[in-house]
Design a protein that fits this description.
Layout: E1 9-13, H1 21-31, E2 35-40, H2 46-54, E3 62-65, H3 71-85, E4 90-93, H4 112-134, E5 141-147, H5 159-179, E6 184-191, H6 205-215, H7 224-235, E7 246-249
Parallel strand pairs: 1-2, 1-4, 2-3, 4-5, 5-6, 6-7
Helix pairs in contact: 1-7, 3-4, 4-5
Bound molecules: NADPH dihydro-nicotinamide-adenine-dinucleotide phosphate and ligand N5H.
The site of ligand N5H has 19 residues, from loops.
């Protein structure tokens, strides 16, 4: 059965290029007939995002700037969305950032500024955009964010991002509790490693992928399509009883010792 999200509108935050997990989610939502609104952080990727969105050939799609470190940009972005579409039914938060030098060596080497930057962009931003999105989710809604196993366990080099993901996962639960009374659900997908722009330059990504292929129960690495399809489930009524949940889409790797 093909799920239909005909007549529903979703905000997708965090497409940088065609490899982005956000783009996998967007394709799944688009295939189900949803209307999509894309947000991007800086001018750096504006053209890339606009080019990609054009390939959807959907003239209802919108592309708006939204740097999540700036309250005024979040406010302006959701004011635009309100003006142009009114009601939204869901939001995909696919955003994270930490300084490269804090993603190697010992966690302890992070400084105050780097710690706060990672938490600001990768964790607080979910709460900031959930607050803004709530106002437009007048028919109920579903918010989905992305996390990684390194938020639950120590994974070499993930460091400050792991601490930020732990905060993000706790935020999912507190937000789910706050927003449940408005019919808004909040969940996270904990994805297995996928080669994206963020993962680029990460030392030894090949050996991380090889370990998954050799040891994960499903003996293969995670794809954008697998994450996209789980997001589609979380955005649809099929998951109407699910909130505050962290769903692992990682070939089962997280169950291993
Ligand atoms: P991408 O590099 O494709 O996406 C990261 C996105 O974060 C970019 O689109 C970037 O926007 C956005 N971003 C960074 N800073 C800001 C900001 N200040 N305001 C708004 N957006 C910002 O990588 P992924 O698709 O891999 O990452 C998406 C999510 O998935 C992240 O939360 C990541 O932690 C998570 N994840 C990734 C895994 C993987 O293996 N790839 C595994 C598990 C989780 P811009 O390009 O416009 O700067
Ligand atoms: C254990 C690992 C490998 C080591 C850690 C990787 C952490 C990655 C997450 C963050 C988001 C990467 C990051 O911030 C990179 C930036 O410093 C530099 N890159 C950029 O600025 C690019 C151009 C833009 C688009 O990136 C962002 N984020 O804006 C984890 C891996 C096995 C899995 C993984 C890669 C997880 C994850 O959370 O992404």
């Amino acid at each position: 059965m093909q799920l239909s999200l005909q007549g529903k509108t979703y905000v997708v935050m965090g497409v940088a290029n065609k490899r982005s997990i956000a783009w996998g989610i967007a394709r799944a939502l688009h295939a189900a007939g949803a209307r999509l609104i894309f947000t991007y952080a800086g001018e750096r990727f504006e053209n890339e995002v606009k080019k990609l969105v054009a390939t959807l050939e959907d003239d209802r799609a919108l592309v708006l700037p939204c740097d999540v470190t700036k309250d005024d940009e979040i406010e302006a972005c959701f004011a635009q969305i309100k003006e142009q579409v009114g009601v939204i039914h869901g939001l995909a938060h696919c955003i994270a950032f930490a300084n490269k030098e804090h993603l190697e060596g010992e966690y302890m080497n992070v400084d105050r500024e780097g710690f706060l930057l990672a938490h600001n962009i990768s964790a607080y931003s979910l709460t900031a955009v959930a607050k803004a999105a709530k106002e437009l989710m007048t028919e109920g809604g579903s918010i989905v964010t992305l996390t990684y196993l390194g938020g639950e366990r120590v994974v070499q080099n993930y460091n400050v991002m792991g601490v930020a993901k732990a905060s993000l996962e706790a935020s999912v639960k507190y937000l789910a509790n706050d927003l449940g009374k408005y019919g808004i659900r909040v969940n996270a997908i904990s994805a297995g490693p996928i080669r994206t722009l963020s993962a680029k330059g990460v030392g030894d990504f090949n050996s991380i992928l090889k370990e998954i292929e050799e040891r994960a129960p499903l003996r293969r690495t995670t794809t954008q399509e697998e994450v996209g399809d789980t997001a589609l489930f979380l955005f649809s009524d099929l998951s109407r009883g699910v909130t505050g949940e962290i769903i692992h889409v990682d070939s089962g790797y997280h169950i291993l010792a």
